[in-house]
């Protein structure tokens, strides 16, 4: 297969959109961490907050890794385009392959981070379930009652 200049150029838009999504996730998590930090200062003995902060610490590390591999993929695409322009075909092919591998790693880490974020939501929902069980008949109880038809 002949690698043309347009092939790595196609990845530019995909990688930049991916990096934008990663940055948005990072900013959302940063906001969550600040809010949880303030709650933790008010109630330092609440274990739910500590669990959430641990989860968010792992997620921040994962997002940083996703961004690093995304940027690496982007840089390798630029190098690949330069090598194609200079007509170093073998080096361009290897560089493009490395760029694709870096992108694949970034996407795989993103998949793991999404899985971890759902665990964080389960922690919150578990806490909410406990609160609702204690307050049987509370204002949100109707949302969590099982319909007899479903059983």
Short description:
By secondary structure, the chain is an all-alpha fold. The chain has four helices and no strands. It has one domain.
Q: Helical segment tally?
A: 4
Instruction: Report strand %.
Output: under 5%
Shape: elongated
The tally of structural domains comes to 1
Radius of gyration: 23 Å
Question: Which oligomeric state applies?
Answer: single chain
Q: Fraction of residues in helices?
A: over 70%
Round the mean pLDDT to the nearest integer and report it.
84
Q: Low-confidence stretches at least 5 residues in length (pLDDT < 50)?
A: none
The major pleated sheet works out as:
none
End-to-end Cα distance? 58 Å
Structural class designation:
mainly alpha
The overall strand count is 0
Along the chain, the helix and strand elements come as HHHH
Keywords: Membrane, Transmembrane, Transmembrane helix
Pfam families: DUF2721
Protein name: DUF2721 domain-containing protein
Transmembrane segments: 12-33, 66-85, 91-112
Folded structure, characterized:
- The protein is 83% helix and 0% strand.
- By secondary structure, it is mainly α.
- It has one domain.
- It is elongated.
Short descriptors:
83% helix, mainly alpha, 151 residues
What's the structural blueprint in terms of helices and strands?
Elements: H1 6-42, H2 47-85, H3 89-134, H4 141-144
Helix pairs in contact: 1-2, 2-3
